[in-house]
Amino acid sequence: MSQKKIAKFVSNGWEVYFHPQLFDTQFQEMFDRVYNLREKLPEAEYKTHATVKLLAAITVAIETKIPSDPRASYFALTGALKRYGRLKKMGLPSRYRLFFRVFDTPELKAIVILWLGFPRKEGAKDDCYEVFTKMVEQGTFPDSLNELVPETDVTQDE
Q1: For 39-63, what is each residue's pLDDT tens digit?
Q2: Strands 2-4 and 152-154, bridge-based pairing
Q3: Are the CB atoms for 73 and 86 separated by under 8 Å?
Q4: Predicted structure pTM score
Q5: What are the backbone dihedrals phi and psi of residue 71, each rounded to the nearest 5 degrees, phi first?
Q6: Which H/E stretch holds residue 77?
Q7: Which helix (H) or strand (E) holds 100?
């Protein structure tokens, strides 16, 4: 077996990864919930369900909106979070924020989707910006792509 970093997908020349413990888990749990809703609800109710709409908005965000220009000013954060970006609005419900990190080197253009934050309530202890800032300060997101998204064991025939 060899070690290889496996992107979730490539969009607009950017390799897109999910943070293995945070966003990957959030996305899989949401995907599973939506799958179960599809089995249980009538189609009209399914299409309008909040979780289904949230997953659809997140999918569009990570597949097209962020990779179209991940360094755009409307994604930029400031201060201690200046190395990170976040998507707000653009289809997401108003109190959600999708945080990510961009790595742009001559060898690789990569985006790591880090965490879906909720709720956004300025001044509250559980405000997603407060929580994300604490995660950054505690070292939850290492500075290198190799540490942030560890390589995965793959067999030679993959």
Answers
A1: 999 999 999 999 999 999 999 999 9
A2: antiparallel
A3: no
A4: 0.89
A5: -100, 10
A6: none
A7: strand 97-104
User: 97-104 and 84-87 as β-strands: parallel, antiparallel, unpaired?
Assistant: antiparallel
Q: From CA 81, how far away is CA 137, in angstroms rounded?
A: 9
Give the span between the Cα atoms of 107 and 127, in whole angstroms. Answer: 36
Backbone angles phi, psi at 141, to 5 degrees: -115, 95
Per residue in 92-144, pLDDT tens? 998 999 999 999 988 889 999 999 999 878 778 889 999 999 999 999 999 88
In whole angstroms, what is the distance from residue 7 CA to residue 16 CA?
A: 6
8 A C-beta contact, residue 62 and residue 74: no
19: its two tokens = 């943070």
Beta bridge partners of 111: 16, 102
Instruction: Report the interhelical angle of 23-40 vs 50-60 (nearest 10°).
Output: 130
